[in-house]
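A further point concerns the way the authors explain their paired sequence and structure data. Since the whole study asks how a given chain folds, the encoding of that fold should be made plain. A single example would do more here than another paragraph of explanation. An entry of this sort, consisting of the sequence and the corresponding backbone structure tokens, reads as follows:

_____
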Amino acid sequence: MTQVFPTRAKYQDAVMHGAKAFLVPELKAGVAERGPPLGMPKTWNGGFASVFRVNSGGKDYAVKCFTMDIGDAATQYAEVSAYLQQNKLSYFAHFAFHKQGIRVEGREYPIVQLEWVRGAPLKTFIENNLRDPHRLVALAEAWRRMLSDLRANHIAHGDLQHENVLVNDDSGGPTLRLIDYDTVVVPIS
């Protein structure tokens, strides 16, 4: 039987009271970023999840709450996490899958807790630098390096669309970070 998951609005209500909702000790003191017009927790919504930015203990996390059954995600996330711990690549943020991560209306649901990754979405970075060919060439080189590193480590992200690739531009040139690991594929040991 398929489990029924909370709606985005129900997650928002729960996240408003982080200490009561979060079952992960690291998030219990968490406060979600709030947005207008009513000061509700701000969400980033995808096809089957809502993501909240939660600050806890001085650290920002992306907390992904699923709005539909995700099958055997626990196994997939565990395999990806273990592989990335052994094959550390700067493109990936530290994350953890918690099978019982949040309580909504008395029931427990899984979450993904990911270090909050800063940066401009790929499309935004490109749009902001259309008149700077040197910066775009540097971005293309960073992209080529990332794809080469992923290939060398036998990793496929599975969803390299512009919102899942964040660009930081420091004095050393653009660096890339990847988010949304639902479709990441790694070798199984």
Notes: The chain has two domains: 8-115, 120-178. The longest strand covers residues 95-104. Residues 79 and 189 are 9 Å apart (CA to CA).
